Amino acid sequence: MGWKGREKIMADNILDRFKEVKEEKVVDASKKVRVGIIGTGWIAEAHVESYLKQPDVEIVAAADLVEGKAEAFFDKFGMKVKCYRSHAEMLDDESLKLDAVSVCTYNRTHAECAIYALKKGVNVLLEKPMCVTLDEAVAIRKAEKESGKVISIGFQPRMDENMKMIKKIVESGKLGKVYYIQTGGGRRRGIPTPYGTSFIEDKTAGIGAVGDIGSYSLDMVLNAVGYPKPLTVSGYKSNFFGTRPDYYPEHPEYAKKFEVDDFAAAFVRLEGGIVLDFRIAWAMNLDTSGDTIIMGTEGSLRIPSTECWNGSVGGEMTLYQDVCGQQTETKIPIIKGDGSLFDKKIRSFLDAVKNGTGAPVPTSQIIYNQAIIDGIVKSAEAGHEIEITIPEC
User: Fold this and answer.
1) 279-to-170, 201, 252 alpha-carbon distances in Å
2) What is the CATH number of the domain that holds 328?
3) Could you give the 3-state DSSP secondary structure of residue 353?
4) Torsion angle of C-alpha atoms 221, 227, 231, 235, degrees rounded to 10
5) pLDDT digit string, tens, across residues 290-306
């Protein structure tokens, strides 16, 4: 048998190690989870649509600061739920007997709403990013521990089989000791203003691309390598596109309202001697800022970028190794998953609530994600590298 034949057998053997048998889960529909929705903007639609697919959920309440908005939102679904003008008013109504809430509000109010719900003894599914600052993340963690309730962060890419494969490859030892990671991505033109200015104003968003899609990109690689603690960061951010009136031909006034980043980059040192080279964009004069690369002493993994960070990978991955003195490349085929990643996010949260198990995407990990985002912002504003200090919580 020639070398090509042996290489094919070795490649197949490598892929076989990552295969697993899937088991069908049976949902106990007799035990209903009573859910409230906080914030009825566009992302809330995805939450409601997914909850309606679950046989063990009752959506019983909603809250939105804008008068009549929650009522109009549920009218579109042909649903009648009890509506409130604030999260506090809804959570204070003990007659609702809420089991869980989805927090679908602006970034700036993520922490406030999540903490209030936890203190009321209600489980929380918190949309990403976790919050805006590290201090807020610490406060959420403290409230979670005091409450004993489940809070999971809305990173549905975790549910993608290709993302799981990345983690399996790292954990298999095929890469050896990981020492360098390059990651990021973004959009050539993709500032999220079709839904108005809530993503671009400081009073509502607080952070821009670095939190919106950057948090996804960070989670992909940090989760794969076991979420090591960030130690230092040298960060950069800019807003060259968002502040240009010609970027919004139909709404040039948006340029004056743009107060966050549309591009961010950083060089981050992590525990374990790992260096993270990161960049993310809502807009850039480039089709991609590069593939994700995880480099190790025994092998490296290339993960193709996507046109618009959509929660999966941009194509088949490549595992680079030396085998018996020969440089080899093993292609990792795209795994076609079944069902919606968003539905899987909702289902995993509900299972955790009902079974008393750990959060699918725990704050103990995402606080490191938030610490990096917070560090990038602070370092960029300071103009130099800073240490990342995460208080005990």
Assistant:
1) 22, 21, 27
2) 3.30.360.10
3) helix
4) 30
5) 999 999 999 999 999 98
* 297 domain residue, yes or no: yes
Q: What is the DSSP string of 320-346?
A: EEEETTEEEEEEEPPP---S-HHHHHH
Question: What are the structure tokens assigned to 279, written together?
Answer: 């960049």
Q: Which helix (H) or strand (E) holds 285?
A: none
Q: Give the residue from 160, 68, 152 showing the smallest Cα distance to 118.
A: 152
CB count within 10 Å of CB 166 equals 22
Distance CA 178, CA 176 (A): 6
Structure-token pair, residue 266: 């950083």
In the chain, the number of structural domains is 2
List pLDDT tens digits, range 338-372. Answer: 899 999 999 999 999 999 999 999 999 999 999 99
Residue 180 lies in domain = 158-337+370-387
Residue 103 maps to a domain: yes
In-domain check, residue 15: no
Indicate if 38 and 164 belong to the same structural domain.
no
Burial degree of 231 (CB within 10 A; 0-12, 13-18, 19+): middle
The answer to whether residues 280 and 210 touch, using CB atoms and an 8 Å cutoff, is yes
d(CA 178, CA 30) in angstroms, rounded, equals 47
